[in-house]
Protein: Phosphoserine aminotransferase
Amino acid sequence: MANVFNFSAGPAMMPKAVLEQAQQELLNWQGQGTSVMEVSHRGKLFMELIAQSQADFRKLYNIPENYQVLFLQGGARGQFAAIPMNLLRENGKALYLNSGHWSATAAKEARSFGEIDEINILEAGDELKVKSLDFSDIAEQYDYVHYCPNETISGVEIFDVPNVGNAVLVGDLSSTILSRKIDISKFGLIYAGAQKNLGPAGITIVIVRDDLIGKARKATPSIWNYETQKNSDSMINTPPTFAWYLCALVFKHLLSIGGLPEIEQRNLAKAKLLYDYLDGSDFYQNNVAKANRSLMNVTFTTGNDELNAKFVAEATAAGLQALKGHKVLGGMRASIYNAMPIEGVQALIQFMQKFAKENA
Structure:
């Protein structure tokens, strides 16, 4: 089991040190003789955990004081609906930048709540490449502009923040949150499911600017109303306490290893190692332009479906798990989120070299 590396796109692997601490504390958290899953979410100790997790997350991401951090449920899909309910005026409209499957899915959901304009920001051609991101001439007619900086299925990442002038920019950072430094002040709202870089599935973080809170339409359910959640410390109902606890451990772990500057350098090194190998290979192909290659999700293929299936089966047997590409795209996908050590990427490349030699 020591040689297993999990390349799952989500739920993804978590830091080993975090899982070991959770294991040690599972039956006796804070000397209480009970698990953290068994204590009241409104008790003194758990409320202290909540306050510390907020402080640690704010420190990691350098979040300005005029932003609230909410710990919610329902995943990113829940936010696909919550965002228009909170930000889209009754007769207003929003702009969605389409860079792939998840940005398109978010736009589809939002159409249930108002007028949605959609712009495809991928250039036509054999390579997946993002067009110009300057929308300053049109953005301010919209209540908000939404985009997804990392498309997990295709492996397309947008490193530049779209220029939307004074409009509200909304980002779905589910698959790239805490992977590199960003300027929070350029966004009105950021949301992310936890199950890739923050913790286990079951909790979703929303970072929202103060002036955007309190504008939800009357029909918005209380669980999706940002003002209600803010005033209730994200606890209008019982939150997923174990997931929140694990996120808190992850935040502390990331701070202990150097925070985002160190995390970003590790992620750049892992991605460079794998892409450099792919660029030098005649056996595997990646069809994403270099400027938009994801640091988190590296897609590749042999160009042959049967050979791809053989690759996945033999990789799994070799302890390299979850390399099958998404059903929408096929091929292979190596998700190398924060918790993936560089040794995992090195092991993958060694296997890829061996497989290519045996199947050329």
About this structure: Residues 136 and 165 are 5 Å apart (CA to CA). The chain has two domains: 17-257, 259-358. DSSP finds nine helices and 13 strands in the chain.
